[in-house]
Amino acid sequence: MFAPTSLRRWVACTFSALALSFMGAASAQTAVKFSLNFKPDGSNAAWFLAQEKGYFRDAGLQVTLDASNGTGDVLSRLGNNSYDFGFADIGALMEFAARNPQQAPVAVLAIYANSPLSIVALRKSGISGPKDLTGRKLGGPATDGAYRMLPAFARATGLDTAQLRTENIDIRVRETLLFRGDLDAIAGFDSSIWFNLKAMGVKQEDVVFMRYADQGLDLYGNALMVSRKMLETNPEAVRAFVRATALGWRDALANPAEAIEAVARRDPLINKAIEIEKLQWLLQNQVRSPLSERDGLGAVDLARLERQIETVSTVFGLPTKPAVAAIYDARFLPPVADRRLP
Fold first, then answer.
1. Which pLDDT tens digit goes with each residue over 160-209?
2. Residue 250 to residue 297: CA distance in whole angstroms
3. What is the per-residue DSSP string for 186-253?
4. pLDDT for 29-87, tens place per residue?
5. CATH number of 117-215
6. What is the rounded radius of gyration, in angstroms, for the C-alpha atoms of the chain?
7. Lower Cβ count inside 10 Å, N or C end of the chain?
8. Whether the domain at 30-114+220-338 and the domain at 117-215 fall into the same CATH topology
9. CA separation for the pair 212, 197 (Å, rounded)
10. Cα 70 from chain centroid?
11. What is the DSSP string of 28-54?
């Protein structure tokens, strides 16, 4: 039997040990910052689902998920090491790496197997394919990947850019200008354009999608990227974050409604029905490919990636052509079982 004083001392020591144990567990969590590709929506729902399911926590990570103004913003954040991970277009990364080789982040999970870059028109304009763009007016934001890659699209389709009228426009009015007929076609991500047009009452059968991927431009799209600082100082955290991301995407694609509920708890104002459609659209048009179906989410054909680097380098007139190793690092891919598409 414990004497009262001994019992009190034993209880105090036990609680102190438990407190230290919990403090140690908390301190073991590595804090990291993740930059979304844009505001919280269906395209990045997987990370919110991974967070809610505890995949980051179980991997020893305390993750902050922040909105961004797009790929350029994400690359800048990773380049100056104010963020550790981000979701951005791999084609834009190639240009960034050529111009900022010491600061450029590295892709570690290629989520969009097919690029969403597209030229979009309304069927009532009489445009049904690239050749119909001759003499027409096409608009897009100057910083948009599809707009900037227009020379590659033209070369692949035989379109004479000298016969195409282009206009730099604000992304906030892009779809409105197309809807009103002020523009004949617009450039951008197919999903972004489609869901904005849908909100205006446009039917999908009335929209013409000219995807770069369907015109011989075999390009990868958005990828999970990591800052060089994180890559060099904490590779185990990189490995853990990549696996948690893969698990989040696997679950989000299997159950889009569950993933969007996780986003809605972050932003209650989202249109859940639209965001579920967006996630399903991404699975069908961007994520699925023969390679990803066989080898799982994030599988990369290095020869294909090399061809994309060549295309981007030519179109943008880059000072140097980045090496594949400077763009993509496959060392952190988790087992295929964690990346299997539903």
1. 989 999 999 999 999 999 999 999 999 999 999 999 999 999 999 999 99
2. 8
3. EEEEHHHHHHHHHHTT--GGGEEEEEGGGGT-----EEEEE-HHHHHH-HHHHHHHHHHHHHHHHHHH
4. 999 999 999 999 999 999 999 999 999 999 999 999 999 988 999 999 999 999 999 99
5. 3.40.190.10
6. 23
7. N
8. yes
9. 19
10. 9
11. TSEEEEEE-SSSSSGGGHHHHHHHHTT
Contacts of 292 (CB under 8 A, 6+ apart): 113, 298, 299, 341
User: DSSP labels for 106-124?
Assistant: EEEEE--SS--EEEEEEGG
**pTM recorded for the entire structure:** 0.88
* Domain definitions of the chain by residue range: 30-114+220-338, 117-215
Q: Helix, strand, coil shares of the chain as percentages rounded to 5?
A: 55, 15, 30
Quote the CA–CA distance of 107 and 200 in Å, as a whole number: 35
Residue 286 CB contacts under 8 Å (≥ 6 apart), including other chains: 111, 112, 113, 114, 115, 116, 191, 221, 222
Q: Whole-angstrom Cα distance, residue 242 to residue 254?
A: 18
Question: How do residues 239-269 score in pLDDT, each as one tens digit?
Answer: 999 999 999 999 999 999 999 999 999 999 9
Average pLDDT, rounded, for the chain: 92
- The fold of the 30-114+220-338 domain, in CATH, is D-Maltodextrin-Binding Protein; domain 2 (3.40.190)
